[in-house]
């Protein structure tokens, strides 16, 4: 399988993600949302300060992050937000698509319960989400700062890529980036992350029932405003970016706050778009827009 070669070494996620501190008490839904929003705002400001090498501003923002509880508090708030009681588990959308129980599916085929798909879940916070409980997947879970012994502490950008001779054995049918790409601090690093995913995907399996045209795949979840209200990214732009990386959109679902995608990987598409690059270019105007962007270099 031919993979793209990058001239620059991708930035490690750990270089833009602050270390955590104490575990917080249980929070209300309102407090959880406020904490997550505040953490994302401070994290973006920190990444911006680091990018312009403003050490004074970066130190001030890191102090604010620590005062608000740091990454550990953010992770616990995210875990609470994903709790079954609050209905925040994004992976249930993927399970719904595969079980044939989602009305947005473009065909009625469902994955057989006897089919075990290998999943790499990046940024895993829970071990009891819908994918873990579905028995459809053999799960590998990683996160920069694991909160559970069954989640490996690892930076996805440092995870060893399986050699071509071992990709069918060590690779995955699906990589999950659920609310991960939006956390990455800059547009180039987001593109680097998306570009790295296919290195972990194994070729489609002919003996898996009900997965034709779905796997190998990337399960991508983003806050809806990242796509619907950005100056630099819209649905058409995202689809162009993904096509240049070798992906076709197999599924999409829009909720009030999130947009969910299942991108089917076809290596022949990637080879056809080998030299395609995407800069940070304005697509929409308006003062209420956000600055979320994805750059491919």
Structural summary, described in words:
- The chain has 297 residues and is α/β, with parallel strands linked by helices.
- Helices cover 33% and strands 14% of the residues.
- The protein is built from 10 helices and 7 strands.
- Strands 3-2-1-4-5-7-6 form a 7-stranded mixed sheet, sandwiched between helices.
- Strand 6 and strand 7 form a beta hairpin.
- Helix 1 runs antiparallel to helix 2 and helix 1 crosses helix 3.
- The longest helix is centred in the first third of the chain and has 23 residues.
- 35% of the residues are buried.
What topology emerges from the helices and strands here?
Elements: H1 29-51, H2 55-67, H3 70-81, H4 91-99, E1 117-122, H5 130-134, E2 137-143, E3 152-153, H6 167-170, E4 174-178, H7 187-197, E5 217-223, H8 224-228, H9 235-244, E6 247-254, E7 258-265, H10 267-272
Helix content: 25-40%
* Rg calculated over all Cα atoms: 19 Å
Shape: globular
Order of helices and strands: HHHHEHEEHEHEHHEEH
- Structure class: alpha/beta
Give the DSSP E fraction (strand runs of 2 or more residues). 5-15%
Low-pLDDT windows of residues: 18-24, 79-87, 103-109
Overall mean confidence score, pLDDT? 79
Ends apart, CA distance between termini: 21 Å
Q: How many distinct beta strands?
A: 7
Instruction: Output the strand order for the largest sheet.
Output: 3-2-1-4-5-7-6
Number of helices: 10
